[in-house]
Amino acid sequence: MKNSPKEALNKPVCAELVEALAIETPGFDKLSPNGLGLNRYVPNPPFRCGTFSLLIAAATASLAAHGQELVLDPVVVSGSRVEHKSFDLPVSVDVVDQSRIGAAQAKVNVSEALAAVPGITVLNRQNYAQDLQISSRGFGARSAFGVRGIKLITDGIPASTPDGQGQAATFNLDVAERIEVLRGPASALYGNNAGGVVQLFSRNPTGNAVNGSISAGSYGSVKTDAGIEGFSGKVDYLMDASTFNTDGYRDHSAAGRDQAFAKLRYRLDDDSRITLVGNSLNQKNTQDPLGLDWQTANTTPRSVTSGAISFNTRKSIDHLQGGATFETRFGATQFQASAYSGTRSVTQFQSIPKATQQASNKQSGGVIDFDRDFSGLSLRASRDMSLAGGTLTATAGLDLDKSSDDRKGYENFIGNTLGVQGALRRSETDDVNSVDPYVQAEWNRGPWQLSGGLRHSRVAFNVKDRFLSNGDDSGKVSYSKTTPSAGFLYRLNEATNIYASAARGFEAPTLNELFYSGTGGGFSYNLQAATSRHLETGIKALIGDDTRINAALFRVDTDNELVVDVTSNGRSSYKNASKTLRQGIELGLDTAWRGGYSARMALTAMGATYEEGFSSKVNGVTTAIPAGKKLPGIPQASFFGEVAWKNGDGFNAGVELVSQGRVYVEDTNNQPAAPGYTVVNLRVGMEQKQGAWQWQEYLRLNNAFDRRYIGSVIVGDGNGRYYEPAPGQNWLIGASVRYRY
Question: pTM for this structure?
């Protein structure tokens, strides 16, 4: 007999939460160190979840008794698509503002900024060739590279392709004003592969100024940045360029990254404006250290496998895109139209064995080489009107996106020389198009708010195979789904809102999951889209003027979950095989008190399991995965806590505590899981102003106690190299200057 929803949530949440914290806590017994030297803790009989909740409530009440102004109710557009106070939305949405994005950070990886967002896990692979791994309530955790299952958007322009694959590296943190993170049922209103939404908004000029910064840190990391912004008549502009280089924490992980950004806004009249944006990303020969097996990760975590060296695994990226947005208002109606286009070129050298590269099927070759053209159009109109004694806000829109890849594959050797581009093994054109009309409505009357939405998504794939010696793999496949959502919010009083929401979502396979999953390693036209049902209930509370608490319970049931079918020689194919269940709790706290002190906390506890059994084949061996096994790649609990202090003389300091529970690495859960860990980060900074000049300096010490731990995992790696170790104690120092003219 299955546990009730309450029991199913309560037991794993408490146990995994305690282990994730891994700190001395009253009511816990200490166990022997695990394989990475981290002490684990489990609850002894007197401890109960209610006790932990009471401790949090008591601490919150104590902090709230003091006074320090905070921005606790920021304006967001995620979820409702029109400006709205986040406190008054029946959704889980968090804002990371400019001060938190740049809190003594190099502003290279979005993981720096999103650590304090509940429900979001950003694993830094220490591998710039494969980018960060971002998951939202477990969606996106199985991605072997980049981001899938989460919609990435920059200034209203998608940073994810129509098939749902995206790269967080395209986010330019140097110009970010804020990052909005949307989770839960409302994410379904963003269409295919939107298990969550991460939107970056660039800042607007506040005056005429030039700025520059430099930072340096462990492992030969250096970043420089320069920018200019200002006004000229009806035009304001912002331009920025940066260069980042690092030797990398691990061997064979050196990387270089150049980014540029430009934005120009032209005010047509009081109600209309046009915004032009452009950005670029360039990475040349970024080294790929690959993953490590369990023993190597424990004994020599900075090492690489021999294949990475012999095949000289590396990746080069050239990314350029631009867009234009027109906004206007006609009385009570707001209208927005956006168009964008861009190109992306990628060349990647892999460590596939020579025999596999020379095979006659579609899995041959060891060099990926593609040139992508992408573009899109978005139209949206919103109107406020009176209805039944309340106010109705109605929104209708249409999103059109397309991409076209000229894709080739080559052998990664010539004769006995490895790591060089060899014979052609693949040549094709892959087109992906999506068409998504949607409507949303929100009605407010007194303490009640009712909202709902409907989106119809259609994603179409068209493959034209030009390498026919191993058969013609041309064909078409499309996926479509109508995804409704509904929610309500009730204002108990001016300081407390309760809400509930529900939605259906779907997740089509990406191009990379369709590749190799068909007969003979060809393109699969038989994979289905996974469908999901999302439920959430929560409370948002303001305590005094200085404390905000958000708490949410969620449950996601998924059918036709995409799972690994076969892994061999480093390649994976996929199939639809199981129902899954994700359920958990999220808790966020922001507070401040007299003397310049502030605190922030983000807590997530989640159980994610296969509800139906299936089988998969690893290097020729078929293995049964019974129901009840944990989904790999998903931390079962995570915690971020921060206490910061800022005085009136420009000095600031902060202490951060980051904890994460164990992470399983493959479906059987038999291989060693990446153990839970706790690390402490320290930072100090100074700020000076004199006339038109402003200077800032900072020093950061990450992993202050030099804990050894696994920072990321490669889910289901066919070679058993699942683990990507994180750095030990490391430092960063930086300075910036700004001149207003």
Answer: 0.89
